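Usage

Read records sequentially. Each one opens with the input sequence:
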Amino acid sequence: MLQNIRKNLVYVLPVVVVIMLIGLVLSRVYQPTGGGIPEPDIRIDASEAYQHIGRAAEVCGNVANAVFRQEIGGEPTFINLTNPHPNQELTVVIWGNNRNKWPVPPEEYYTNQRICVVGVIEDHRGTPQIEVREPEQITIR
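and closes with the structure output:
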């Protein structure tokens, strides 16, 4: 019986190796889009966002202004926390291809609200920014 296993192993082993190599190649080539909502490492006020660039966070603040800029490439919606642009503590950006996920235009829905945003804090030209892809990333408090 041991001899039969060894004999068959000669045929099975190359197949297993090929399957593993295909899996390795596919894992490097295929990258799912979206990635879901990141789990926040910290919960902070918008005024602290600049200290935490690169971290997943829940950032809270008052919406100072919100605007849909259809004339800009990507048709972004900008939601500025604490102060209006250009002195905002944090910018929340929702790209045009995600706007249809909100039942009401985001610039109307969040105006004059206190919100908390979950996402990775990025630096955009010296201003902390979180890109939002899903309505679940923003909660009204």
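Summary fields computed downstream for this record:
- The CA atoms of residues 36 and 80 lie 23 Å apart.
- The longest strand covers residues 56-68.
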